Amino acid sequence: MITAIDIGNTNIHIGFYVRERLHKKLVYPTRKGVREPSFIETVRVNVPVAVAITSVVPRLTKRFASFFRKHFGLTIFRVSSRVQTHLSFDYYKPQTLGADRIANVVGGLARYRKDLIIIDFGTAITFDIVLRDGHYLGGMICPGTQTMVDALAQHTALLKKVAVVAPSRLVGRSTEECVQSGIFTGTVAMVQGLIEKIKKAYRKRFYCIATGGAGELMSKHIEGINKYDPHLCLFGTLTIYRYNAKKR
Questions:
Q1: In this structure, is the dihedral angle defined by the CA atoms of residues 156, 10, 213 and 194, taken in order, positive or negative?
Q2: CA 53: distance to chain centroid?
Q3: What residue ranges do the domains of the chain occupy?
Q4: Most exposed of 5, 176, 228, 233 (fewest Cβ within 10 Å)?
Q5: Active site members
Q6: Measured between alpha carbons, how far is 222 from 199 in angstroms, rounded to an integer?
Q7: Per-block mean pLDDT, blocks of 10 residues, the chain (248 long)
Q8: What is the pLDDT of residue 248?
Q9: Is 209 within 8 Å of 112 (Cβ atoms)?
Q10: Which residues are bridge partners to 22 per DSSP?
Q11: pLDDT computed for residue 36 by the predictor
Q12: Domain 2-78: which CATH class?
């Protein structure tokens, strides 16, 4: 069994894989971290032979590395642009590219074998564009829906946090409805518009994949999205580990 871990700014996703099949998945809020006793027991029941981590939170990467070394004698494998990914980067500084975005791209290519636009609806909304031959073209980063909600509440005196939901009407009739429609409908319009612009700029029929916490909800309302894949980053993390395990 191989343990794949995706440490994001909002949540930590942990997948236990038997070959290519996701056997078990755990999710913990990043700000609260992982409660060690219960986690140790879960790992002992699903004993890994290897651990691969994709992380955008360095301090937690170190804690997980220490945990697996101390309790299971394992050295974790860390996803980055420096390991074998079978990608060629058309990016000024590949070492600054988020490990989660690399894992998404590798996972997407391994699963779909198409020219891809991958949109991760997380704390930030990230776009990654890659050709089927592994040529990574670049991407975009926009604020996520919950990030926009939090920013409005933090930087205004009268606006409060609202739930991110599909509004019942386009034009709100209360302050809460106005914020919900502005953020949700605005995000739908932005993402749809960017998908169209990317396709037009490269003159390709990209296959568009959504992932991330808000991806399921948003993909239902964005015509340009072809597929929602909730475990794409974990699968990409596993795939990159396997590419490098062969070299080892």
A1: positive
A2: 13
A3: 2-78, 90-233
A4: 176
A5: 100
A6: 15
A7: 94 92 91 77 85 95 92 94 96 95 98 98 97 97 96 95 93 95 97 98 97 95 97 98 83
A8: 54
A9: yes
A10: 17
A11: 67
A12: alpha beta
Written as one string, the DSSP assignment of 101-160 is HHHHHHHHHHHH-S-EEEEEESSEEEEEEE-TTSEEEEEEEEE-HHHHHHHHHHH-SS--
Residue 169 to residue 178: CA distance in whole angstroms? 10
The CA distances from residue 64 to 15, 81, 102, 179, in Å, are: 14, 20, 20, 38
The reply to whether 2-78 and 90-233 are identical in fold is yes
Residue 165 in contact with residue 180, Cβ under 8 Å?
yes
Q: CATH top-level class for 90-233?
A: alpha beta
Contacts for 134-142 with beta carbons within 8 Å, 24 or more apart?
134/86, 134/87, 134/88, 134/109, 135/87, 135/88, 135/90, 136/87, 136/88, 136/89, 136/90, 136/91, 136/105, 137/90, 137/202, 138/90, 138/91, 139/101, 140/194, 142/190
Contact 225, 219 (CB under 8 A): yes
Phi first, then psi, for residue 80 (nearest 5°) are -160, 175
Secondary element (H or E) of residue 12 = strand 11-18
- Report the length, in residues, of the chain: 248
Beta carbons of 184 and 164 less than 8 angstroms apart: yes
| Look-up of token digits 């959504």 | 210
50, 74 in Cβ contact below 8 A?
yes
**pTM, whole model, 2 decimals?**
0.94
51 strand-pairing partners: 3
Angle ∠(7,120,206) on CA atoms, nearest 5: 140
